[in-house]
Task: structure prediction
Amino acid sequence: MRRISTFIYQIGQGFVGVFRNGVMSFASLLVLVSCMLIVGTFYMVIDNIDKNLKSTDDINIIYVYLPEGLTDEQTLDINEQIKKIGEEIGNIVDWQSYSKEQNFERYKNRAGVSAKFLDIYNEHNNPLPSSIEIRFTSFSSADFNMDDVFKLKNRLESIEYISNEDIKENLALYEKVTGLNKTLTLVAAWMMAILLVVSLFVIMNTIKLGLHARRNEITFMRYCGATKSFIRTPFIIEGIIIGIFSAGVALGLQYYIYEFIISDAMAGGTGSIIESIDSVTALSLAPFSDYLQLLAAAFLGLGFFAGVISSTISLKKHLKV
Amino acid sequence: MIEFNDVSMVYPNGTVALKNVNLKIEDGEFVFIVGQSGAGKTTLTKLLLREEKISAGKLHVNGFKLEKIRERKIPKLRRTMGFVFQDFRLFDNKTAYENVAFAMRVIGEKPSLIRKRVPFFLNVVNLSDKYDSFPDELSGGEKQRVAFARALVNNPHTIIADEPTGNIDCDMSCEIMELLMRINKLGKTVIVVTHDRDIVSRYKKRVITIKDGVIASDRIGGYDDNEEN
Result:
């Protein structure tokens, strides 16, 4: 079993290696930190957009506005047909009918202090129609299926008395945001993959330089009877130190980027993200602490992985023991 | 004990370095290995350290069968030998004490044992007053003595010295040879690879001459010019 003093010595040698090739170690750190920041930033932006979208109240509601002049029987018939569709497709959670008067009241309540302009309207000239609001399975639910929602919409359109113009939904917004998220994920994945490969190469070269600088020492260690693991471990520790230190730096920078840059951008400060999404005026951001544990684990994992893999490949390629 | 049985060594580029070498070195022997450059001396020491693998034959070194040794056993084989390089190979950033201690450190010895044995072996090579000196503060002979202390500190069976007098003056050479004799008297097998005819002739020890990869002569006494040329 390896002695603790030997292990401490090897850790010390790992640090010596990091500082011996200071410039290359710094270059490795920069590339690895960039890689981690891209992963972290994209993840948090995508997750925030997603959460906001899914928590939007009316995102999973289809509104059916009933034409003027329908009789009570006809309205009842429409409700019956919706119930039947729900049973057939199985993705309707509930539905609610609202009369013209109820809709007028709800609109007034929603408008709040600016509802004064509604004073010109009364029960005789109320411009709002009756409606049925159909709530389907939530987007965040495991049972959610976009095809079922389109099927539901098509079936609603086929109901007698109801035309396409009478049906309103936010599926376009959902599709647009989901599409944006998919694009962002793809861009992030590519950038991460490229930077990860670059960082592996930079760390490999850092280790290679370390091997070159210590070639006499390594020859001597071999001739003394040092084991393969004794010679290799300091170089692997060197890679791990670079990886873990990069994770720490990346986490600190990520906090700054999230709190001061992403917050501004997503709150509409620069408007770039917000303007691309119709009908959303500002997004509420999850606190950084929500992501801290996940990011710390991901960055440490990524740093550890990059350090171990690159140093192992470099040792396998350049170290004869 | 070291025993070569019909050992041949061919490098991957086809160069035949050793051909059917048969050789036996008993424990506690003192042996000079001589020969011109390219004769196969270096290859022979590399085979002993299992730096290179034999192409044919059998090679037994200090109880290890090198023709079929497992990779994980190689460090154990090397621990039975102490190697001294012609150019000393001391670490400039380490003191004499640290250079010797390093040889123990790399095989995972306890710090308490290191503190005990390093001063002892520095005393053996008469460097008790140079513990804290760095290599550039030492003469060539002193550097070589540090290298010997470093080779001895792990208590090997065999000491292999590659041109130990190559980089030092005549007086120092004699001093180093006397040190090697003392090490030999401690019961260690000593193998000295050298070009130095004077040294070989002065000490009436076993001399193995290698020429073109074969043992040209194996005799007790001085240098045999006819065999080498």
Chain A touches chain B through 18 residues (CB under 8 Å). The two ends of chain A are 20 Å apart (CA to CA). The first strand of chain A starts at residue 61 and ends at 65. Chain A has a mean pLDDT of 82.
